[in-house]
Amino acid sequence: MAAPDVVAPPRARGFTTTAVHAGQEPDPLTGAVVPPIYQTSTFVQDGVNVLRAGHEYSRGSNPTRTGLETQLAALEGGHRAFAFASGLAAEDALLRAVLRPGDHIVLGADGYGGTNRLVNTVFGAWGVENTPVDITDPAAIAAAVRPGVTAVLWVETPSNPLLNIADLTAWAEIAHAAGALLVVDNTFASPYLQRPLALGADAVVHSTTKYIGGHSDVLGGAVVVADRGHRGVPLEESVGHQQFAAGAVAGPQDSYLAARGLKTLSLRMDRHQANAARLAEWLQGRPEIARVLYPGLPDHPGHALAARQMDGFGGVVSVRLAGGEPAARAFAEATELFALSVSLGGVESLICHSCEMTHASVRGTPLAVPRDLVRLSVGIEDVADLEADLAAALERAARR
Ligand SMILES: *Cc1c(COP(=O)(O)O)cnc(C)c1O
C-alpha cells in the first residue's frame, strides 16, 4: 500500500508579508496591483437577491472595507475583524454587542479619556456601572469583579499617558474565571508589538487613527474578535450585527487609507521606537525632567513584563517636569518640530499636556493625569533634529 501523501503545512508568513498581502490581492478584473477604492453605496444584483460577489449595500459590506478587515484579522491573529468610522465607534459597537442594562465593567483606570467618557456617560445612562482599577494590581482587579454581574474587563496596555504595563495573561485568567470577557485596547502597541488574543483576550479594539493609519490623515477604528462567544452568541455575530444594524462603518476612502498605512506599520514602528528609546534615555539626563516614563527603560516598573509580553516598547514617551505644571505647560508650548496637538502614532512628532488636552474629561477626578506630565508621540523624523528641538524647548521654557 502506498504511503499516504505527506503535505507540508503552509509556512506561516511573517508579520510584514502578511501586512502587505492579506486582504490586499490585486484586482482580478483589471490586474491593478492595489485593490481599488470601491466608492459605491450599492451593488447591482443579477436577479432578486442574486449577488455577484456577496456585496449588497456598503453598510453591510464593501470590498475596500473587507480588504482592511481581512488584513487586521490576520495581523492580530483574530477570527474576524470589523472596521468602524472611529476608535470610539468601534468601542461603542463592541460594548453594545455584549452588554445588557445592569451589567458591570471592570475598567483599567489609566486609559484613553474618551473610553472613560463613553463608559461613564453613555453606558452609565443605560444602567451599566464600572469600577476603575489599577491595571498593574491583579488582586485589586480580582476584587473589583462582581461574580455573575461583571460582563467585561477592559484594559489598555501600555496605558495612556502613564505607560503602565498590564499583565494580559493575568487579566484573562481573572476575566474567564468570572465568565466575563477580556477586551484589550491595543492602539499604543499595535499588532506589530503585541497580540493580545494570543495571550487570552477575547477581543481587541483599535483606534486605527493612530499607528495603523500612521499619517494623521484618517480617523478609524476596529474590533478584532477571537472565535469565542458571550451569553451563547459568537462575538463575530454580535459585533457584526452591531456594525450592520447601527452602521458606524468605515467608509471606502478611510478603509483604503488604513489598509495602506498597515502595509508599512512595521517599518514605521521600528523607527518610532528607535527614536523614542534614544530620546527617553537622553531626557533622563536633563535636569528639567524629574521622571521619564517609557517601558523600554530598565527602571520602568513594567519593563520586565513589557519585554516578555511585547516585541518592542513603542513610540510614546511621557515625562514629568521638575518645575511642575507651569514647566510642563511651557515645555509643551515651546517646541517647534513637535506639534502641540492631541493624537499620536503619526509620522510627525506631537507633544501634549495630557491633563488639559487628552484627559480633560477626567480632570478633577481620581483618574486625573498628573499636571506636570507631558506626552510625546515620537515621530519618524531624524532623531538628532528631535533631540535638538526638545533641548531648545526645555531651555526656552526655563526662561519663561
Ligand atoms: C485615540 C484613541 C482612542 C479613540 O479613537 P478615535 O479614533 O479617536 O475615536 C481609543 N483608544 C486609544 C488608546 C486611543 O489613543
How would you concisely characterize the structure shown here?
By secondary structure, this protein is α/β, with parallel strands linked by helices.
In percent, how much strand structure appears in the residues? 15-25%
The strand order across the widest sheet is 3-9-8-7-6-4-5
Q: How far apart are the termini?
A: 88 Å
Write down the overall mean pLDDT: 96
- Order of SSEs: HEEHEHEHEHEHEHEEEEHHHEHEHEEEH
> Which CATH class of the largest domain is shown?
Alpha Beta
Family: Belongs to the trans-sulfuration enzymes family.
GO molecular function, one term: cystathionine gamma-lyase activity
Cofactor: pyridoxal 5'-phosphate
Pfam family, one: Cys_Met_Meta_PP
Describe the structure.
The model has no long low-confidence stretch (mean pLDDT 96). Helices cover 36% and strands 17% of the residues. The longest helix has 20 residues, at 265-284. By secondary structure, it is an alpha/beta fold. It folds into two domains: 15-263, Type I PLP-dependent aspartate aminotransferase-like (Major domain) (Aspartate Aminotransferase, domain 2, 3-Layer(aba) Sandwich); 265-399, Aspartate Aminotransferase, domain 1 (Alpha-Beta Complex). The termini are far apart. The chain binds pyridoxal-5'-phosphate.
Topology:
Blueprint: H1 15-21, E1 45-47, E2 50-51, H2 63-76, E3 80-84, H3 87-98, E4 104-108, H4 113-123, E5 129-133, H5 138-144, E6 150-156, H6 168-177, E7 181-185, H7 190-193, E8 203-207, E9 221-225, E10 229-230, E11 233-234, H8 235-246, H9 252-263, H10 265-284, E12 289-293, H11 303-309, E13 316-321, H12 324-332, E14 339-340, E15 350-352, E16 373-377, H13 383-399
Parallel strand pairs: 4-5, 4-6, 6-7, 7-8, 14-15
Antiparallel strand pairs: 1-2, 3-9, 8-9, 10-11, 12-13, 13-16, 15-16
Helix pairs in contact: 1-2, 2-9, 3-8, 12-13
The structure holds pyridoxal-5'-phosphate.
